[in-house]
Amino acid sequence: MRPLAKQNRWYHILFFLGVVVLFCSPVVVLVLSSIGPHWQFPHLWPQEVSWEPLNTLWNQRLPLLRHLSSSIGYSLATVATTLLMCLTPAATLAHSHFRGKTLLEGLLLTPALVPPMTYAMGLHVAFLHTGLADTFAGVVLVLSLFSFPYMLRPLVAGFEQMGTSYGQCARNLGASRLRTALEIELPLLLPSILAGGSVVFLVAFSEYFLVFLIGGGSVESFTGFLVPLLQSSNRALASACTLLFLLVPLMLFAASEGVVAAYWRKRGAPI
Amino acid sequence: SEPDWRTKDFERIIEAARGTTVRWYMYGGWPHVNEWVDTYVAPAMQERYGISVKRVPMNAPVFVNKLINEKSAGKDPGTIDLVWINGENFKATKNAGALWGPFAEQLPNWQRYVDPSTVAQDFGFPTKGYEAPWGRAQFVLIYDAKRTPNPPRSAESLRRWIQDHPGRFTYPQPPDFTGSAFVRQLFYATTGGHEQYMDGFNATLYARNAPRLWEYLNGIEPSLWQQGRTYPQSSATLDTLFARGEVDFSMSYHPPHAQNKILDGTFPASVRTVALANNSIANTHYTAIPFNAPNKPGAMVLANFLLSPTAQLSKYKPENWGDFPAIDLDRLDQSQRRRFEDVDLGPATLSAETLAEHAVPEIPIGYLEAIEADWKSRVLTN
Amino acid sequence: MDFRVEGVSHSFEGQPVLTDITCGFRQGELFSLVGPSGAGKTTLLSLIAGLLSPQAGTIRYAQTPDLNAPIILVYQDFILFPHLTVADNVGFGLKARKWSRATRRNRVEQMLRYFQLEDKADAFPAQLSGGQRQRVAIARAMVVSPAILLLDEPFANLDRSLKMETARFIRSTQREFGMTTVAVTHDLEEAFAMSDRLGILLNGRLRQVGPPREVYFHPQDLEVARFLGPVNPLTPATTADLLPPGTDSPSKASFIRPEALEVEGDANGPGCIRDIHFAGHYIMYTIDLRGQEIIVYSQQRVLEIGQRVRVRAVQA
Amino acid sequence: MDFRVEGVSHSFEGQPVLTDITCGFRQGELFSLVGPSGAGKTTLLSLIAGLLSPQAGTIRYAQTPDLNAPIILVYQDFILFPHLTVADNVGFGLKARKWSRATRRNRVEQMLRYFQLEDKADAFPAQLSGGQRQRVAIARAMVVSPAILLLDEPFANLDRSLKMETARFIRSTQREFGMTTVAVTHDLEEAFAMSDRLGILLNGRLRQVGPPREVYFHPQDLEVARFLGPVNPLTPATTADLLPPGTDSPSKASFIRPEALEVEGDANGPGCIRDIHFAGHYIMYTIDLRGQEIIVYSQQRVLEIGQRVRVRAVQA
Amino acid sequence: MTLRQILRLAPLLAPFGILLAGGVGLTVAQSLGVLLPVPVPGGPLEGYRAVLSAPGFWETCLFSLGVALASALLSVATGTWLGYALWRLPPQMRRLGIVYKLQLILPHLSVAFVVLLFWSPTGILASVLYQLGLLEAPDQFPNILYSGYGLGMILAYTCKGVPFVMLLVLALLARFDRRQLATARMLGAGWWQTARYVLYPHLRPATHTSFIILFLYSFGAFDIPFILGESRPGMLSIAVFNRYFKSPLDKRPEAMAMLVIMFLFAATFIVLYGRIVRHIDNAARKL
Ligand SMILES: Nc1ncnc2c1ncn2[C@@H]1O[C@H](COP(=O)(O)OP(=O)(O)OP(=O)(O)O)[C@@H](O)[C@H]1O
Ligand SMILES: Nc1ncnc2c1ncn2[C@@H]1O[C@H](COP(=O)(O)OP(=O)(O)OP(=O)(O)O)[C@@H](O)[C@H]1O
Ligand SMILES: [Mg+2]
Ligand SMILES: [Mg+2]
Q: Which Gene3D superfamilies does its entry note (chain A) (predicted)?
């Protein structure tokens, strides 16, 4: 038995480099192919550099920014909505037992996992009748409806792990339900919320069909810009656009991750 | 309530449209087209009519579904003023009653410059004035003159070329738009030309002729890319394979496509196009107005502007787009016509005359559906 | 606040854990609940705190517990909020009572000083030692002046002097505010020393309730007596040896405690020392007295294993 | 296995927790580590177990620990595997040693019987009481016969009889297999009773190491003495009252333990009873002796608060 | 279920009910030939008949299942391992390790494109091999992407799935007491025993959830097959996509029938999976 405290530094460094290469290489490739549209076998990098795609992006910067901010807006709103939708149900699913719970938990996953066309038409008709179609609220609602499973699962896991005793203890000390939720449970669930929120944000941010069908083009979206490019053969511009697309969630993740990690590190937790 | 704009004088329509916004829903995957709309159409419309044009990128199937739903829910007004549409999508929306019209023949530029016979049918489906033409496209094969100095120019020589160069050719899998058009061309070529099919779908004729097409396709299959085990799922994938040098041909339903790709750097400068002799399908693409368009006058003014010789000329220039005019050049005056003739399409795009020489019309939609369905059972799974 | 537990029973998964517990708890008293591990002590506290509902029986409070007269439970495993500092943990109950920041800070500081945690005010629970955590948990509960304070093993992780100080603090606060305290403990000495009454829970039944001396000296039966400390059963044979000649074997008390015996070296004595355990302020002798094992606590330091001795009851 | 801790220091976030600890641990001994809360006891155990690397100093083992001679630490908060049953928790180490299912089951059953956990074999940790969890943790460690067993507060949640039995079990297994045991405990009585040697850790320094009696009766200084139990400092004034006339105030021992004193009612005595604490097998009197507070442990039951008394050292 | 529980679940049950009733309801109706935008001839079950009897339908189903299964298994295994290994790294490296999220963010279409760029015979790997002198021409490069086994799609789905699993796993590990690992090590447990009995039970919620999600998602999504899909056999999702988006409206009942079938499959799969996993875990619980 080698002393537990001794950790193999070289193994760690090698592994870390491996992870970095593995996960960064696609981005490097995207960068290269965005400036080298005519990059071909057997060259390891583009032989000639073209700034054309970046130029195009620059020319489109105003509409791009508009679309981008609209996308960020409804994606964040979706994260908030799913969080609100999922909190009490997740606590209930984690802490109580009833017949058919597993079944219900499973069924609640389905919206995220079947093609959106499965319910898109029906929802659109329903939204048309309620006046939600072509509105920001409608887009947020439809995105929440199909991305909530990504929030629900981490939350249920988080609640299960947290157990009931913290909540009980806080209530016992006289805290109201709201204070208990806000000051005790939410901070403890932060890693789970972050995990769920990241995925929900991404799913909402990347969704194309539903945003267009329900938002009807009056709610602008960056994917409306990106997806046709990705589907076309203009790889260079598509790559450049993808990089731009990458930027927003990346900054958001880095920021939230940093904040949460600092929060827990300070508190002596192993994050 | 809204006046019936179909009966109104166009001057009044322009008047009513002044100061409004037109939301134009169109395919957004071609950056140069987007740019042309944003930097040419929109300012011109603003300047001439005080109309602000808002381009909304949206794939046709999405707005088709949206319109059909809005129709069944009776939502009026909607959000779409004008759409870029043709073929099956036009048929679907028209059949669902989701289009407004007829309006096309009312447009001054339609009356002045359009040859009605060329736009009476869209894939064999009567347009009845529910859509206004604004461009023309034609099918071409794309090759690299450096790699393939002598490209085949007929179905027969193509077959030989493929068999001589195993693994270097493929086509997108129908129902991909481009792949499907390629198969339709071969249908014409292997069964004795297009004329016989122009009167609408004839099942017995189809049953008699189709086997020859399957024979051709199955004949080349073993020599295709990946031994024909698999086909690219989209023409974009085929473009990529071609650009990376995995196959020697790409194809497009847009003659300037190769030139555009050279300009944006995807294809090398030595890329050229070729049309199959006397057998290159051409079609027209259109604009249409949804039944619940909130700004019908504005949409009509835009559709009319797009048909104007200036707009058509601008669109025709390869640095803008290179899309072929939908208007009949014979109806233009001399100087206008000269300007069209003077446009240098670029080395990769075939000239208008060459294309016109080999152009054949699209097949009625019934054949298209039959071919796409049978391609699966006769070519793919056999 | 006084309250009554009436005929309460509880079981987990069909296994009865508490059976028919009935007991009144008096305003302001310090009641210690003792019993072997797994007897159901924690369960009883949870029932009183209202965290579990009794499956049978009721618990009647003299007045409905509320924010001003709360019932507070200090958990056996503390349940400190890991994301709050020590100061915030302690101040949590005050915050819930909407105390202003300044008064809260004052009160918390005072509390921390009392529990010798001033220098840990800004530490997080993960950075504390076991005993420090326990003190934070107790401070967090005491700070809101509960009407009923329930302590689950409040001293388990404290060293002797902290234990005594904490006990003293609980005792004095409790007296001052008249808060009824129920403490579960394994430390019988502490329980004897600080409680007004003791309750002995064996196998899910409350076997005896009473002031410490009464319970210690007049246990209801041998089982209770044994639980409270080692006992030497009095058989007719040993009685003769242990009690002064002429004393009758007392009819009621059928045993004698180790500390009530005295041991003396005597080469002709009837006993023989089997084992010696040094336990600090006393020494435990295990003595073989004509075949029966007798335990004696004594200050005698000179005896050795194997030595022959005489054992006698002390005159109190 | 014997091992040496040599000049070990450790600090958390710049705060020194252990300073220059040097101590040899002998093969097969039971070493108790005592010290106030936060003294660094847990930290020292973690260092010995190799869970932390010392920031200065080294720990030398007589032989490299391995599967057949493992070092096992039983945590203060147990760290049971929450998803395994009690039996699986206990059998975990045996499985790692590739014991067959049948022999494993036998051994585990035997262990559980020993710790009175047979009926909890299929329960999960969450369904156990505090003491039951503690026993599972100890059983899980003992079952693999570690060469070095490190126990962090092994008795904190056990009642007296379980505590004694567990101590006895550890003691006998430990003797049998010659496993070196280091136990952190707050229960001084238990530490005195069962350990071969005691180490006293105050403020991160190992202040004294020795057999219990030596440490108890010859503490190195007053601080150590105080930690081990209440002391009555001997001033010239009190010496006269407490010691038999003619005895010189001993030069070395400057204090006297409460159990070395005797108290007697005496209407003219110099002392006055201030406080009485009943603690089971003894009673603690706090006596005001000419203005100085003196603590006496006694069996005397008849005295009352306010009564005048005389206090004297007992003859041992 | 008590009323209280229902009330507490209501924030999800209500929207889920709307989704089912409103959304899936119309789909079911249209699959049965009613409420269609344009009337379509044929009986109510015509759509289902056409779908089930389409050439190669079952083959397509099996192939889609295979691709989904392989990519989900691969993602869960790799993602769990990588997540755990990342968590074990020293804090500074662990913090930088969030680069794993890059691939989580990349749209599926981009990932497909990147896979194509890497693995095609004229791709980056081939170029590297060429530069190393191990390859003379692209056609010597092993045929990976379009070999008929769906390897390209499996690769792409795995690229997307691994960071997803890592995200969930790391969220759970954030509240995992490292001393459990230390205890297992002290007791002599090897790599497998620790993983199986200490780590896995803790990560179980993440692994099972992500398996279900990744499996069903790759079964039904069409972004990646759009670029890396093959023709023989094709992916079920592409068949749906084509019927829905690329066919005339009279194919709507067929498209809807396929969607209904996929929905039912997803629901059945989830239920069965839950049963099977519970069974396996219970059986394995006895050490
Ligand atoms: N959630 C539960 N599920 C099943 N059994 C339980 C549960 N909680 C407690 N028990 C069982 O109930 C009995 C009493 O538990 P309890 O915690 O009240 O004991 P305790 O007297 O506090 O013991 P200790 O002194 O060891 O803490 C024990 O046998 C325990 O195993
Ligand atoms: N992870 C940590 N970060 C910062 N400080 C710590 C950490 N762990 C322990 N400490 C501090 O180190 C000191 C010694 O802690 P340790 O746990 O060794 O004490 P202990 O002697 O075991 O106390 P107890 O008897 O209360 O368990 C304490 O003051 C504690 O606050
Ligand atoms: Mg308990
Ligand atoms: Mg400790």
A: MetI-like (1.10.3720.10)
- Residue range D214-266, pLDDT digits in tens: 998 889 888 899 888 888 888 777 777 777 766 655 545 578 888 888 888 88
Higher-confidence position of C87 and C13? C87
CB contact under 8 A, A179 and C97: no
Last residue of a domain, one of C178, C205, C226: C226
How much is the mean pLDDT over chain B? 91
First to last CA, chain E: 34
How far is it, in rounded angstroms, from Cα E78 to Cα C71?
50
pLDDT digits (tens, 9 = 90+) for B108-126: 999 999 999 889 989 888 9
Which letter does DSSP use for residue B39 in this model? Answer: I
d(CA B305, CA B308): 5
pLDDT at residue D110 greater than cutoff 70:
yes
Q: Give a yes or no: residue A166 inside a domain.
A: yes
ipTM: 0.86
Q: What pLDDT is recorded for position E286?
A: 45
- Check CB contact of A1 with chain D, cutoff 8 Å: yes
CATH number of E27-101+150-282: 1.10.3720.10
Q: Distance from the CA of A181 to the center of ligand 1, in angstroms?
A: 28
DSSP string, chain A: ---TT---HHHHHHHHHHHHHHHHHHHHHHHHHHH-TT--TT-SS-SS---HHHHHHHHTHHHHHHHHHHHHHHHHHHHHHHHHHHHHHHHHHHH---TTHHHHHHHTTHHHHS-THHHHHHHHHHHHHHT-TTSHHHHHHHHHHHHHHHHHHHHHHHHHHH-SHHHHHHHHTT--HHHIIIIIIHHHHHHHHHHHHHHHHHHHHH--HHHHHHHTTTS--HHHHHHHHHHSS-HHHHHHHHHHHHHHHHHHHHHHHHHHHHHHHHTT---
CA distance C69 to C63: 9
Q: Which atom of ligand 1 is nearest to the CA of C13?
A: 4
CA of D154 to the centre of ligand 1 (A): 18
pLDDT for C197 equals 95
- Is residue C18 within 8 A of residue C44, CB to CB? The reply is yes
Taking CB atoms and an 8 Å limit, are A38 and B268 in contact across chains?
A: yes
Residues D183, D297, single domain; the answer is no
How crowded is residue E112: how many other Cβ atoms within 10 Å of its Cβ? 27
Averaged pLDDT for residues B71-94: 90
Residue with tokens 């020590």: C86
Residue D278 is predicted with a pLDDT of: 86
At CA D15, angle to CA D9 and CA D17, rounded to 5? 40
Backbone angles phi and psi of E171, in degrees to 5: -65, -40
What CATH number is given to the structural domain containing C266? 2.40.50.140
Q: Find tokens 């020392």 and name the residue.
A: C273
Does the CB of B30 have a partner CB in chain A at under 8 Å?
A: yes
Helical spans, DSSP H, in D127-187: 130-142, 160-177
| Domain tally, chain A | 1
Q: Look at C72 and A165 and tell me if their CB atoms are within 8 Å.
A: no
Question: Which pLDDT value is given to residue D122?
Answer: 92
Please tell me the total count of domains within chain C: 2
| C93: pLDDT strictly greater than 50 | yes
Return residues 257-286 of B near A (CB < 8 Å).
261, 264-268
More confident residue, E246 or A159: A159
Core vs surface per residue D85-118: b (16+ CB within 10 A) or e: bbbbbbbbbbbbeebeeeebbebbeebbebbbbe
pLDDT at site D247:
61
- Cα–Cα distance, C201 to C18 (Å, whole number): 9
Given this model, what pLDDT does residue D245 score? 66
E81 contacts chain A (CB < 8 A)? no
Residues C53 and C151 in one domain: yes
E229: alpha, beta or left? (left if phi > 0; alpha if psi -120 to 50)? beta
